[in-house]
Amino acid sequence: VLFVSERNENVWWYDGERIAFRTPNYTKILNAMRTQPTLTLADMKEETGISMTAIQKLLDQLISKKYVERGEKNGSWRVFVIQ
Fold first, then answer.
1. Where are any strands of DSSP class E within 1-83?
2. pTM of the predicted model, to two decimals?
């Protein structure tokens, strides 16, 4: 029921589980990756207004939890969490 009814920009879902990010920066990065999967880190900085250091730190966490991954062939981002 929560999956259908809960609406919050910092709440995402992964494999049926609720994920609540503490900062909206995760949402900014994830939305940028979903709309433009071939973004580079520099593009993400321009798109989100987040510093490169912060983007790298947030991406490392997203990748380690397997919420996103970078495609090996074309370098596109694959986002596995949904909002």
1. 11-14, 17-20, 68-70, 77-79
2. 0.83
